[in-house]
Specification:
Layout lengths: L2 H14 L3 H29 L12 H18 L4 H7 L4 H8 L4 H15 L7 H10 L3 H8 L2
Helix pairs in contact: 3-6, 7-8
Amino acid sequence: MSDSGIRKRHLDHRSTGDTYTDESAFDETRHKVFVCVFLLAGMALLGYYGFYVNSGDNASIEDLQVNLRVCIGIISKEIGKDWRKLGVALQFSEQDLQEFEKETSFFTRTAKMLKNWQHKSDAKTVTLNNLIEALRSGHQMELAKKCKNI
């Protein structure tokens, strides 16, 4: 029997006052409970996997630190030969930059430089916003945009 036939028979019994009206109310309640549980589970999963809007004002310190590490990974991977401009913007000395240049790849140079920046600077200056500003001052607008949108 098709779905429409089942619904029609169900409605026919409801109109006659059979016990099916109680079952209908039960089915309706069960459906509402299922929908609520489904939505709550979905919201929990979205929160667990980080698919939530995180504004700067409400972001926890842990979230901001994770975002900074993600941005550092993106920069290390994508900046290439322009890593030096970022180093200058982060106020590394020429001697420091020459030390980083001993590394064989742009990725390693940049990663080492940014790790050094994190450790040498105080916690107030090692922020995602400061890193984004350094990217902008080094004319790395595309990377700055990527880091801003994390």
